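Q: Given only this backbone (106 positions), what sequence would you predict?
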C-alpha cells in the first residue's frame, strides 16, 4: 500500500473510532449493590446517567458511601472494558498494517 493509501486508511479509521465513541454514549452499563438497594447506570464512555438509592440506605450515611464507591467502581470498570473492546475492534480491523504495528495489538 502506498503512503497516500495508508494516510487515507488512517483517516478512515480515525473517523470510525470517533463514530464508535459517539455510539458508546448510548450503550448503557447497569450495576447494583449486592442487596439491590443501590443501582447505577452509566454509558460505556463512563458518564453517569442515573443513580437509584433505596430509602433504607438514606438512614446510614457510611453504608451509602461504601455502596456508592464499590458499585460505581464496578460499573466504571465494566464500562471501560466495553469501551476498550469496541475501540480495539475498530482499530484492529481498519488500521493499515504498518511494519511493527501488529505488535501493538497483541
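A: Predicted residues:
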Amino acid at each position: 500500500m502506498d503512503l497516500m493509501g495508508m494516510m487515507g486508511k488512517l483517516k478512515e479509521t480515525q473517523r470510525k473510532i470517533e463514530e464508535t465513541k459517539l455510539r458508546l454514549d448510548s450503550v448503557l452499563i447497569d450495576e447494583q449493590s449486592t442487596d439491590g438497594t443501590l443501582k447505577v447506570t452509566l454509558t460505556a464512555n463512563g458518564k453517569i446517567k442515573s443513580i437509584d438509592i433505596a430509602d433504607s440506605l438514606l438512614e446510614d450515611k457510611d453504608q451509602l458511601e461504601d455502596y456508592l464507591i464499590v458499585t460505581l467502581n464496578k460499573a466504571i470498570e465494566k464500562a471501560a472494558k466495553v469501551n476498550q473492546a469496541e475501540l480495539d475492534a475498530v482499530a484492529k480491523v481498519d488500521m493499515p498494517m504498518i511494519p511493527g504495528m501488529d505488535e501493538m495489538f497483541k
